[in-house]
Amino acid sequence: NRVQFVKSITGNISLSPSLNIKINRGWRDRPEIHTCFNSISLPASVATDKEDFKAMVLGAISGDDYNIA
To answer: At what angle do helices 50-62 and 2-10 cross, to 10 degrees?
Structure first.
């Protein structure tokens, strides 16, 4: 899952020391991945609970509307 997470957000299979992933609050009701900015925007209504966060991110990178080879 870690490789899938990094690749879905950055387009790379690993992180380099100079590459950061940004996690911020968005305004939509679903997560948005922005590979151009190496970021993921989560809905403002999402709780900051660790399990909720993991479920939201896994849902975003494994959904039918997102596909990266």
So the answer is: 60
